[in-house]
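debug: dumping io for the single-chain case to check the tokenizer round-trip. Nothing else runs in this session.
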Amino acid sequence: MPRELVTSPNYTKGRNNLIYCGIDWAEKTHDVALVEDTSELLAKRHITDDAAGYKVLLDLLAEYGETDESPIPVAIETSRGLLVAVLRTGTRQVFAINPLAAARYRGRHSVSRKKSDPGDALVLANILRTDMHAHRPLPQDSDLARAVTVLARAQQDATWSRQQVSNQLRSLLREYYPAARDAFSIWQNGLCRHEAHEILRLAPTPARAARLTRTQLQAALKRAGRTRGIESDAERLRESLRSDSPRQALLVEDALGKQMLALLVQLEAACTAVDGLAKAVEEAFPQHPDAEILLSFPGLGIQLGARVLAEIGDDRQRFADARGLKAYAGSSPITRASGKKSSITRRWVKNDRLNHAGYLWAFSSITASPGANSHYRHRRDDHGDWHAAAQRNLFNRMIGQLYHCLQQRKLFDEHTAFPSQLAASA
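debug: decoded output
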């Protein structure tokens, strides 16, 4: 049962003092604390993680004067979940406080290291009371942008999982079946292709591979969807799988083959997930109004453009200027000075997903844009940058251009983006 509401006897409705809310969330229950700008604790409550608990929370906020015109800001240590979705309705600002930052604030109220959930809720409320200007609220993105965020991140996670399982399978084949690994290496993403899966199911061990016929190999390639080059590939695979190589003991080889088949099931599931989510992204992303602007940039396709949109969102007030977006992406350098020493280094605290997408974006734009290629060469040849530094500098410039185009609702223009580089190339 929820705990009884604790209210200060000195509190009277109608005060003009500002009120702040802190929520320490958990899997089944949450602790809520309300404080005013005089640091007085107005109320605390223990609610459940269900519809009844959410109603208690909203009623509590309304009881202390929350309206659409004067919402009560809320601090919580997560940015996801149903509780956050409920809090984000209306005009209320929700601040996702980093747990590490909250732990530092805890020492301001107690020198002991003991921790309690009601105390953490009070700490979160006081963070907004004292330093709300130093924390960024969750962006007010549209529902479509948030849906693209879910799909793009899921597709990216599935791609990383597929690569991880593929690496495990490649390492296992190296231990007992190197001929199969070499036979599929000629194909791009060889172990992730349907042809490789059909052949590995047909011949999970070198002993089984030695008995494969051309007809069986051709049938396996047809089941995988191949329509051309079947005979030549079947002959190449037959010779490669029958090549002489060291062998494990027969019982050990058979056991490793069973382990490989188990990994193959995981890899096939990961490949199916990647393809399904990629199709979902292709359906959702072009519907967004910013898709046309993002796709006008060289090096950005549907999947990569969706990843960029997923991380920057469509809230135009989220970043005050292009410098804020560059710092968020980790593309701009940071200067650290202490006494007589100063250093300029790359950023370590950043949005890792956006930074990863920026690396792929800059790499692709080098071949897709003459201006981007000239800028990259200028950084390499004239400034002496290494490849990663030159590519990061190119990403820094292009994401600044993206910020301008999104704010002004303009498409990318090569001559406007790289006038000096194109003139030098000419």
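debug: round-trip ok. The longest strand covers residues 29-36.
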